[in-house]
Fold Monocyte to macrophage differentiation factor 2-like.
Amino acid sequence: MSKTYNMDFKRTKYGRFMNNRVPSNKRYQPTEYEHAANCATHALWIIPSILGSSLLHFLSDDQWETISAWIYGFGLSGLFIVSTVFHTISWKKSHLRMVEHCFHMCDRMVIYFFIAASYAPWLNLRELGPWASHMRWVIWIMASVGTAYVFFFHERYKIVELICYTVMGVFPALVILSMADRDGLFELIVGGMFYCLGMVFFKSDGLIPFAHAIWHLFVAIGAGIHYYAIWRYLYTPGTSEMKTSR
C-alpha cells in the first residue's frame, strides 16, 4: 500500500518530468521532457568537441601528437554524436525498434573507447613509469572486452557494467600518477571526480527528474576539464620541452 502511494505521489508531484522507476532488468522510459533534455545536453557539445579536436590537430608538432589528437578527437566527438543520435531515435523511435536497440548498445560501447581515447594523449606524450608502454595497449584491450560485454550481456547486469566503467576509468590512472611532470594532474583528478559524481545520477532514473540529462552535464564538465588539461599542458606552444622523446 505504501509503495503504491509513493508511486502515485511521485507521478502527481513530478508529472511530465519523470516516470516511475523500473526493475533492474528493464529500461527506464523517459518522459517527453526528459527525452528532449537527454538530446540537448549532449548535442550542444558536438560542434565544440569537433572544433576542439581540430585545434589539437593543428597544434601538433610531430606524428605522435597528430595520432594522439585524432584518437582523442574521435573518442570525444564520437561520445557526443552517438549519444545524441541514440537519444534522438529513442525519442522519435516509432517503428525503429531494432535501430534504437543497436544505437543503445553503441551508446554504451562508445563510453569504453571514450575512456581509452581520453588517456591516449597522456600515455603517448608524457614521460611515464615503466608500465606506460604496456598500458597504451592494455587500455584498448579493456575497451574491446567492454564492447564484447555490452554485445553479449546488454542491459542484463547493469551493476557489472557500472563496475567495468569505473575500473577502466581508474586503473590507467595508476600509470598516469607516475608522471615525472605533474602539470595537469590536478585537472585530471577534478575531471575524474565529476565523472564519479555523475554516476550517482546515471543510476537514478525514476528517482530524480532529468537524472540522465544531469549525468550528461557531469560528463560534459568532466570532458571539458580534461580537454583543457590536454590542450594546456600537452599541446599549447611552449610546453614541448615537457614532452618525452618518442
In short: Residues 28-239 form one domain. The chain has one domain: 28-239.
